[in-house]
Specification:
The complex is a heterotrimer of chains A (about 325), B (about 160) and C (about 800). Chain A has about 325 residues and is an alpha+beta fold. Chain A has 11 helices and 12 strands. Among the domains of chain A are: about 120 residues, Uridine Diphospho-n-acetylenolpyruvylglucosamine Reductase, domain 3; about 110 residues, CO dehydrogenase flavoprotein, C-terminal domain (Enolase-like, domain 1), CATH 3.30.390.50. In chain A, the strands form 3 sheets. Chain A has a 5-stranded antiparallel β-sheet with strand order 4-5-8-6-7. Chain A has a 4-stranded antiparallel β-sheet with strand order 9-10-11-12, sandwiched between helices. Chain A is globular. With about 160 residues, chain B is an alpha+beta fold. Chain B has 2 domains: about 70 residues, Beta-grasp domain (Ubiquitin-like (UB roll)); about 70 residues, [2Fe-2S]-binding domain (DNA polymerase, domain 1, Orthogonal Bundle), CATH 1.10.150. A 5-stranded mixed β-sheet of chain B has the order 3-2-6-4-5, sandwiched between helices. In chain B, α2 crosses α5. The longest helix of chain B is centred in the C-terminal third of the chain and has 14 residues. The radius of gyration of chain B is 16 Å and the shape is elongated. Chain C is built from 18 helices and 35 strands. In chain C, the strands form 9 sheets. In chain C, strands 4-6-2-13-10-11-12 form a 7-stranded mixed β-sheet, with helices on both faces. A 7-stranded mixed β-sheet of chain C has the order 33-9-14-15-16-8-35, with helices on both faces. A 5-stranded mixed β-sheet of chain C has the order 1-31-28-27-19, with helices on both faces. Classes of the chains: A alpha+beta (about 325), B alpha+beta (about 160), C alpha/beta (about 800). Chains in contact: A-B, A-C, B-C. At the B-C interface, α2, α3, α4 and α5 of B face α1 and α16 of C. β1 of chain A pairs antiparallel with β1 of chain B. The structure holds flavin-adenine dinucleotide, iron/sulfur cluster and FE2/S2 (inorganic) cluster (2 copies).
């Protein structure tokens, strides 16, 4: 049986206390919400905290609240399943809820949280196996080694951004509330990530994600399309979140976020320009998708060929725009 | 704050019986059930959240016991396969799986039973699509799934 | 499910009914103890240290740090287990722990027994092994070249060639010369693995010179033999128990390192020792489907009759022999059991590579050539403008005939299974429509191998029935790996004794208690153990009937058996009466396949079977012309089962076979990168979830085989075979491109579409077959018909 290494388990009584112990232990500690990402990685020796600080039991992190400006604040430890079963969220943010519903399998969604999902580790098939396996392959920069195996010339790790909900939250211009030793701050989800598969988050290691603030959807309609091998369990091979505003059949505004095609989710809304002021048709959509998929840089470190994944990104963009606009 | 340095007493209830157990903080619920309580009906196929063989119900909700720490189930009510049938009477899901020939080696069966039971407890008349979706994290290598879908549909009817 | 009955024998009471498995309840309530669930007082836990080099000499192993660790009780290396073993007499090439050199990443070099798994693992990590890496061989092409360092093995050869074969039946050159159309194709079938849900596990005790091993094995008898060899111990001092089994599919058919290691450690420590593999280790243990490169050339007459066929295969065997010599021959053996091929030449080679060893997986050696053959026939049909179903029908074998390679065909429902799926699916009424397609294929499979794995004249299956104080126990070495063999045995006996299957206590798969059955491989158990059980049960019935007849003062022929009664007496009273007179009642049964079912040439041992099952499938799917993504709509499968012993169980086997065929056709692959398994996890080794699985409509065709128990044939492997080519054929139907390689993933389909869009051939697959110096062809004289019934 694959087992966890030894560690100490702390169960703080509040977020404030959690933040305090996290900064005390520094890099020796990590927080855990559902544990569905952290625990398998600890079992495989990819992540080795000596202290695990549990957050999942903190009621203050488990609320979904409608806020006065018309948006919602979702506690970091609300599970993906709770998001999926919330009819209010589904009505307001169909793209985000769809993304949550497409994460892995039902039992995993009963444990996995939205905060953990935003912070989920990047993936790479030179990295996501056991210690023994990585030793046989040769360690890489992301853990225990010094070069990138998939892109040896790269100065940074190119592991793949794999959160399904991050792009969907970004498409709604959501923000997150972080609490750290220096207090609380609110930052856009979009600014949480950077182009480095090893240090994939911009937030400080001792900052705790407290909640996700989804703004008033107003007229924004949204969708999320996930490309993967199987209909369940699997991480995205490409993911596209789209948010749209329409006047009748005419597009007023459109945001497109793509993910799983590089170390961070990418905002490629600039490519939607040709859609603005127009009806959605195949020609425009093809043009938009081609442009939007340009920054996608899938590498040979996930399932199926990267050429296919790149092309599927285009296809997923087209599909996501159509779904957001509810046109067939 | 409570901390579990090396061991802690864990209070939880399994199949209606409460336990106070000295556990290691890093032994998963799967290990606690199988090794400490010797409830070996809960199976394991990957220990990494990828197969569904280890599914148990925590307060009625299916969870992958290989990814649950004991500290996370403090005070919870856990149902394992050993607690599903009522004395000598099989639960309708178990009965239907048996009648439909929906188990062969039986290794995925405990996880299937618990995922199905949780589904039917919340939705006694699921569509085929809903059944497939609800069980989509439970792999089975023997049956081809077809008979399991039929069985769960039938069990729902029997429970209604 | 529809059953097409061909006989009127309706007085069967339990045979053929849809009844639950006899072992269902224990599994449903979590009480069945699989190997890893067994724990004995004082059990120690074992972990194996495995090589992280694909090919390397072992220069030294230092276990002192491990031995010094608290909680470590014993550490062993190859020095402690010097005797080699292997499943086949000709491939005794494995050490339980390798001491001189390692041949793949995952090859075990040391084993630790400790108070818990955590300690054992930690101890493995401090064992110091010094390796000298050698050139790693990673592909068939590479293995065919002369090695730069040294061959992987110092037997067989030349170089890394393990086995070769070259046979010709009939006049092949003449056949081609007469042909009006000749076609050649090249195919590749990627290797894949069994992925049983249960990870292999074994626990051993050694008490008073008696070694007992409980293991998740399909073949306790062969493990028994291997243990006896490795420990140089009499078989009588060893007992191997096949624990309730969490899925095999061929993957638990070899004797394994962990079984040897726990046995040795139990001997050293005097305590029970258990080893349960991790999922990653299960991928290394493997013994799964061989990657096979295939070339086939066929000549047909104007009206589509096959006149000659030349079939070449090259198998990537991985690091050890395993069942390889048989696997290689199987890639050439069963082409002839579906089609009448008057002239047939086969050349095959199996090479060693530095990968996890390949072996038997469901269909052993035959899904690969079946895939190639069926698609090749599709292509021929298209080339000569004939409907693919019609082309096949023109070449179907006839019941009760001999194939050119001397195999005896008896009952044969190939026409009926074809009719069933073609009619039900309305295959010929489908409309040509871009993105939608249907594919059809047929196949056949053995009901057990005609010969045992090692040469001996003993029965292949034996069975004892004991009736004691009214209770019935049936003892048989057969191993229920989920396929339902316990249920089959109970049903066969129940029918004869007028009881219900659950009235029979089955004791199976235990070399200490049960007579030998060779094991759960090659779909042999229903046929062979079923016959052994039938014989024993008939004899028991005769004894009981006779005693009752005497008491009733009537002739035995007037004693009715059924509904729990023997004549006027209840079964129990009849049994007590008989026991009063005769003492405890025991009867025996055994089965040995007939001798004349195959040829007498060298290599004739692979292919013969007392009967063949037949299957046909139609797959209906949508394939996206942009992305190559496939959505399966429905599969129609018809299977010639002879007769179902339990139709619910047969349906389950058929559906399971369809599932496994679809999953491996579309996503499963045991892939390597830099000599290392690319994805040893259940997340990354893809297999179908509920959501990929389409609707399946099953048709069971009864042909009532003359030799099968009650006419039964196999169902465990055959129904997988036609599904794989049918998927690929349906994709061609939908998109007009060929993917001559499985798994048929969307990116491969996209490559084929791209090629066509660029004006090239709309195809993805191997370009050419390598130059191989096969041995000189052995021309086999025609079968001597005078020595056989037909
Ligand atoms: C088989 C399998 C399949 C999966 N498939 C998918 C998939 O398809 N899509 C997908 O997006 N994910 C997938 N996941 C990953 C993961 O399960 C989910 O992303 C899940 O939502 C993570 O949430 P969690 O609460 O379990 O995170 P945890 O495991 O608890 O934490 C994940 C990371 O986030 C950090 N973290 C968690 N909460 C906070 C917080 N509040 N503040 C700061 N840091 C925090 C942790 O320190 C850790 O680094 C899969 C996992 C498995 C095992
Ligand atoms: S992208 Fe490169 S550095 Fe990052 S995990 Fe993969 S191989 Fe390692
Ligand atoms: S053992 Fe928990 S999901 Fe596989
Ligand atoms: S019955 Fe064997 S894995 Fe499901």
């Amino acid at each position: 049986m694959l087992r966890l290494p030894r560690f100490s388990y702390l169960r703080p009584g509040s977020v404030a206390e959690a933040a305090q112990v996290l900064s005390e232990y520094g890099s020796r500690a990590m927080v855990m919400a559902g544990g569905t990402d952290l625990l398998p990685k600890m079992k495989r020796g990819q992540i080795e905290p000596e202290v695990v600080i549990s957050l999942g039991h903190l009621d203050e992190l488990r609320q979904i609240r409608a806020v006065s400006d018309g948006g919602f604040e979702i506690g970091a430890c609300v599970t993906l399943a709770e998001v999926v079963s919330s009819s209010e969220l589904r009505a307001a943010y169909p793209g985000y809820v769809r993304a949550a519903a497409l994460v892995s399998s039902p039992a995993l969604r009963n444990a996995g949280t939205i905060g953990g999902n935003l912070c989920v580790d990047t993936r790479c098939n030179y990295y996501d196996e056991s210690y023994e396996w990585r030793k046989a392959l040769g360690f890489c920069m992301k853990k225990d080694g010094d070069i990138c195996r998939v892109a040896p010339a790269s100065a940074t790790c190119r592991a793949i951004a794999s959160s399904d909900t991050a792009p969907a939250a970004m498409s709604m211009q959501a923000t997150v509330v972080l609490v750290g030793p220096k207090g609380m701050r609110e930052v856009p989800v979009a600014s949480l990530y950077q182009d480095d598969g090893q240090f994939y988050m911009t937030k400080a290691a001792d900052e705790i994600l407290v909640s996700l603030r989804m703004p008033d959807p107003g007229r924004w309609k949204s969708s999320y399309v996930k490309v993967r091998n199987r209909g369940s369990i699997d991480f995205p091979l490409a993911g596209v979140a789209v948010a749209l505003q329409l006047s009748g059949p005419v597009v007023d505004d459109c945001r497109i976020i793509i993910t799983a095609v590089g170390p961070q989710p990418l905002d490629v809304s600039h490519a939607a320009q040709p859609l603005l002021g127009n009806r959605i048709d195949d020609t425009i959509l093809e043009e938009v998708a081609a442009e939007a998929a340009k920054p996608a840089r899938p590498l040979d470190n996930a399932d199926l060929s990267y050429v296919w994944r790149k092309r599927m990104t285009r296809r997923a963009i087209e599909q996501a725009v159509r779904e957001a606009a509810e046109v067939a | 704050m409570s901390s579990i340095g090396s061991r802690e007493i864990l209070r939880f209830s399994v199949n209606g019986r409460s336990h106070e157990l000295l556990v290691k903080p890093y032994a998963t619920l799967l290990e606690v059930l199988r090794e400490d309580l010797r409830l070996t009906g809960t199976k394991h196929g990957c220990e990494a959240g990828e197969c569904g063989a280890c599914v148990v119900l925590v307060d009625g909700t299916p969870q992958l016991s290989c990814l649950v720490l004991p500290g996370q189930v403090e005070g919870s009510e856990i149902t394992t396969i050993e607690g599903v049938s009522d004395g000598g009477t099989l639960h309708p899901v178990q009965q239907a799986l048996m009648d439909h020939g929906a188990l062969q080696c039986g290794y995925c069966t405990p996880g299937m039973v618990l995922s199905s039971k949780a589904l039917l407890d919340s939705n006694p008349t699921p569509s085929r699509e809903e059944i497939k979706e609800a069980l989509s994290g439970n792999l089975c290598r023997c049956t081809g799934y077809v008979s399991i879908i039929e069985a769960v549909e039938d069990a729902g009817r029997a429970m209604a | 499910m529809t059953t097409v009955a061909n006989d009127r024998n309706t007085d069967l009471r339990v045979i053929g009914k849809s009844l639950p498995r006899v072992d269902a309840v224990g599994k449903l309530i979590g009480l069945t103890a699989y190997a890893d669930d067994i724990e004995l007082p004082g059990t120690l836990f074992c972990k194996l240290l495995r090589s992280h080099h694909p090919h390397a000499r072992v220069l030294s192993i230092d276990t002192s740090a491990a031995l010094a660790m608290e909680g470590v009780v014993a550490v062993i290396t190859g020095v402690d287990l010097p005797i080699k073993y292997g499943i086949m007499p000709t491939s005794q090439d494995e050490h339980a722990l390798e001491n001189e050199k390692v041949r793949f990443v995952g090859d075990p070099v040391a084993a630790v027994a400790a108070v818990d798994e955590e300690t054992a693992l930690a101890a493995c990590r401090v064992i110091e092994v010094v390796y000298e890496p050698l050139e790693a061989i990673e592909s068939i092409e590479h293995a065919l070249l002369p090695p730069t360092d040294e061959p992987i093995h110092d037997y067989a050869g030349p170089g890394n060639i393990h086995r070769m074969g070259a046979l010709e039946f009939g006049e092949v050159d003449e056949g081609f010369a007469k042909s009006s159309f000749i076609r050649e194709d090249v195919f590749f079938y990627e290797g894949n693995t069994h992925l049983p849900m249960e990870q292999h596990s074994a626990i051993a005790t050694y008490v008073g010179d008696q070694l007992t091993l409980w293991s998740s094995t399909q073949n306790p008898h062969y493990v028994h033999r291997a243990l006896s060899r490795v420990f140089d111990m009499p078989m009588g001092h060893i007992r191997v128990v096949a624990a309730p089994h969490g899925g095999g599919f061929g993957g638990k058919s070899d004797p394994f390192s962990h079984e040897m290691a726990v046995s040795k450690l139990a001997m050293i420590t005097g305590r029970p020792v258990k080893c349960t593999l991790t999922r990653e280790e299960v991928f290394y243990v493997h013994r799964g489907r061989h990657p096979v490169l295939m070339w086939v050339r066929t000549g047909v007459s104007q009206d589509g009759k096959i006149l000659a066929m030349h079939f070449r295969t090259a198998l990537d065997g991985g690091a050890y022999g395993s069942y390889g010599p048989a696997s290689m021959l199987y890639t050439g053996a069963l082409q002839t059991t579906t089609y009448n091929i008057p002239a047939y030449r086969f050349e095959g080679v199996r090479v060693f590579t530095n990968k996890a060893p390949c072996g038997p997986k469901r269909g052993h050696g035959t899904p690969q050539p079946r895939f190639a053959l069926e698609l090749h026939l599709d292509k021929i049909a298209e080339s000569i403008g004939l409907d693919p179903v019609e082309l096949r029908r023109r070449n179907y074998v006839k019941p009760y005939s001999r194939t050119i390679n001397h195999l005896r065909i008896t009952s044969c429902g190939i026409e009926e299974v074809t009719d069933q799926v073609i009619n039900a699916s309305r295959y010929h009424e489908r409309k040509k429509q871009l993105g939608h397609g249907m594919g059809f294929a047929v196949s056949s499979y053995m009901c057990g191998a005609g010969l045992p794995i090692y040469w001996n004249k003993l029965p292949h299956s034996e069975c004892i029935i004991q009736v004691n104080r009214g209770g019935v126990s049936l003892y048989c070495g057969a191993t229920d790996i989920g396929q339902g063999s316990d249920t089959v045995l109970a049903t066969v006996a129940a029918e004869q004794l007028g009881l219900w299957p659950t009235d029979i206590r089955i004791v199976s798969g235990d070399t200490g208690l049960t007579p030998v059955d060779l094991g759960s491989y090659s779909s042999r158990v229903t046929f062979m153990a079923g016959n052994a059980a039938l014989q024993a049960a008939k004899e028991m019935r005769d004894i009981l009937v006779e005693v009752v007849a005497e008491k009733m003062e009537c002739s035995p022929g007037d004693v009715m058996v059924g509904e729990g009664k023997i004549g006027e007496l209840s079964f129990e009273d009849a049994a007590l009466l008989a026991q009063e007179r005769l003492g405890v009642l025991t009867t025996r049964g055994s089965y040995t396949p007939p001798r004349d079912i195959g040829g007498k040439y060298k290599a004739a041992g692979v292919g013969p079977s007392p009967a063949y099952s037949y299957s046909a499938a139609v797959v209906d799917l949508n394939a996206d012309p942009y992305s190559g993504e496939i959505r399966l709509n429905k599969v129609w499968i018809a299977h010639d089962i002879g007769r179902s012993i339990n139709s619910l169980a047969v349906k389950g086997q058929v559906e399971g076979g369809v599932y496994m065929g679809l999953s491996e056709a579309m996503m499963e692959g045991q892939l390597y990168r830099n000599g290392l398994h690319k994805q040893p996890s259940m997340l990354d080794y893809k297999s179908f979830t509920f959501l990929e699985m389409p609707e399946v409509e099953t048709f069971l065709v009864d042909t009532v085989d003359l030799e099968g128990p009650y006419g039964a044939k196999e169902a465990g492997q055959g129904p997988l075979l036609p599904v794989i080519p049918a998927v690929v054929s349906a994709v061609y139907d939908a998109l007009g491109v060929w993917v001559d390689e499985v798994p048929i993933t969307p990116d491969k389909i996209m490559r084929a579409l791209d090629a066509r869009a660029k004006g090239r051939e709309g195809r993805y697959g191997p370009k050419k077959f390598p130059q191989i110096s096969y041995p000189p062809i052995v021309k086999v004289p025609p079968f001597d018909a005078t020595s056989s019934a037909f």
